[in-house]
Amino acid sequence: MSATKSSKKQVDMLNGSLLKNIILFALPLAASSILQQLFNSVDVAVVGHFANSQAQAAVGCNGPVINMVINLFIGISIGANVIISIYVGQKKTENIKKAVHTAMLVAIISGIFLTILGLFISRPLLTLMNTPAEVLDYAVIYLQIYFLGMPFIMVYNFGSAILRCIGDTKRPLYCLLVSGIVNSALNLFLVIVFHLDVAGVAIATVVSNIISACMVWHFLTKEAEPFNLSWKKLSISKNELWKMLKIGIPAGIQSMVFSISNVVIQSALNSFGADVVAGSSVTLNYESITYFVITAFSQTAVTFTSQNYGAGEYDRCKKVFRISMIASMITTGCMSLSITAGHSFFISIFTPDAEVIKYAEIRMFIVLMINLIASTYEVGGAALRGIGYSTTPAVITVLGTCALRLIWVYTVCQQFKSYETLLIIYPISWVITGVAMLTTYFIIRKKTFSKAKSLA
Description:
Number of helices: 18
Number of strands: 0
Shape: globular
Low-confidence stretches: 1-7
Order of helices and strands: HHHHHHHHHHHHHHHHHH
Number of domains: 1
Oligomer: single chain
Distance between the termini: 23 Å
């Protein structure tokens, strides 16, 4: 395989210290995801300080909707990551070329589809979610404008997945750093100067997504073969697409159903009024930030496991799982506890409203403080996908978190209608799903590796 022009930016997943390389790979990835989340966080903060609580609630309540709609296609990008990484381990350069161009064309097509879909379903979906009447029009405006940027969101995510396959998580971070600065500046400019409130922050987010997508596309066009991206070579390879879909669709459905359960919970939150919605959305920003640390280590586990599995390095795959799990739990735990300890300061960044602050604090102490437990099923599921098992972790997550949360909302919460009762299902579902996922991982890993060794 040809060396790329950016070899210094790459992490070697097949050689060297796993602890060092996993940290070098995961930290820029976590920072990238956090910056991506900050697009929405800055939106919430700006409208909270310079508009009103209704506008703030409108921006905050759109997160679960956006995730639900786009997660199926983000899942396919995970499939692309796994397949290309396995090809890297196997040194199959022609397959890599086909997979890269297939993935990027899928990104463009899916982005256009999501834009069209989003424009039509925004109001019906938000109405179905019981979005408060005083918030609904604001929320529709934000969501429809946001969906205009979907092609660029897809290009960035698929392009970043490809760069991760060659051990590069730094340049996606640079993309988001630049676009994040633009996003923040435009937010303030459009809201304070032009008084565009919700529309202003949505426009700023779309512009930022355009910038990050263009940058990651440019980086790929400068890569050496077999990762070099060319407009002329964009095409769908049925074989590579099928392999991506086989891994990616279960992962995407898992994320989509997971988001549906969050939409149902958001609907239940909406019934408590705008102050609860706003307070919950404030803490949700910090939950997302810490959760992206977990997903960074889970994506690291997917990529490292895939390459080492493709190369036949089974003992190294075990070490990847162990290091990724421990690092995820320690890092997430430290962040969550630090934010919770300084809750007064962190909440004040988003709102000065006493009622909103009260509900934000409640969510911090019930959900945020112990969300490191989610590492168990995220990293465990990622390790399973890395060795080719995608449906199994999807089923476990759907049943253990999504289905359980839906049952809770429609049974327990109907009998004990309170904000606290609604939130407690998060830690309960994390524990149940984590135990099931880890048990399954160790069983499947033992059988898979034993079979592979016997055939070697």
